[in-house]
Amino acid sequence: MKTIKIAIAGLFLLVANAAQAQVSVNVNIGTPPAWGPAGYTEMEYYYLPDIEAYYDVRASQFIYYGRGKWVRTTYLPRQYRNYDLYGGYKVVLTDYHGRTPYNHFKAHKVKYYRGYHGPAQRPYKPRPVYGYNERRHDNRNYKHYDKHDKHHGKHDRHDRDDHHHGGPGRR
Description:
- This protein is α+β, with helices and mostly antiparallel strands and 171 residues long.
- It has a domain at 27-138.
- The protein is 33% helix and 13% strand.
- The chain has four helices and five strands; from the N terminus they run αβββββααα.
- The chain has a five-stranded antiparallel β-sheet, with no helix packed on it.
- Strand 2 and strand 3 (61-66) form a beta hairpin.
């Protein structure tokens, strides 16, 4: 009987964990990325003219042309790993609803050329700032020593050594 109670409790915990994981996965679907332009409610895609790629907001995927076909991935391809998503211009495609925005790529490429900037944009969420707080409260001494300071440092050490050993020549 005790074994059955333990098995039921284990099964209950397993089901509870699975349900919780399902909820946390589904919460972010369809949410604009932090770097996406703010002020839009009904959009499915961004076109990124600087890298000639799309971003599917609902699926949280980038769509780019590579190896002879359009590819969907959660990350930008290697050649764009240093691309600044916050700083780069995003064209919000409010007039397209479907699964293949790249069917209009030729028109988008001409209308929204590389370097295109339309109206000013601000991101959905501010750009994260890394390291500021850590450095601000850092108590390390960053004094830079030149040759003169190093020379004096050696004398100070020798003077201390001489003092502790009873002066020069005594050991």
